[in-house]
Design brief:
Nonspecific Lipid-transfer Protein, Chain A, alpha+beta, five-stranded mixed sheet, single chain, globular, 110 residues
Length: 110
């Protein structure tokens, strides 16, 4: 279930980048790795390179550029739009470990 939601969000993000010249320019030359850690112990990874997100798989990365930590229900809500990112962050239901610049970009994923 959560894997499908993450894959759907990646596809939606890639479609948006494909049709948004401003976002393309903002992401140009950017290369990042992202790890999503669920509180039940599962982890998923994907990368951003060449203005596309991809290489989605289960597992952990040694030193991801961006780490998102949450429970499955909150992450599912973020990806379906039933949970607001700022509210989840303020109530500590989701944590982001990344540079400020990367945080500003990753918000476009939700």
């Amino acid at each position: 279930m959560i894997e499908e939601l993450i894959n759907g969000a990646i596809a939606k993000f890639n479609a948006r980048v494909g049709s948004d010249a401003v976002l393309q320019k903002e992401l140009d030359g950017m290369k990042r790795t992202v790890q999503v850690e669920l509180k039940d112990g599962r982890s998923f990874c994907f990368s951003l390179q060449d203005n596309r997100m991809g290489d989605f798989h289960e597992g952990r990365l040694e030193n991801p550029d961006i780490k998102i930590v949450s429970d499955e229900a909150t992450l599912s809500g973020l990806l379906t739009g039933t949970v607001r990112p700022m509210k989840a962050w303020a109530t500590k239901k989701v944590q982001f470990k990344a540079s400020l610049e990367d945080l500003m970009r990753i918000r476009k994923f939700f």
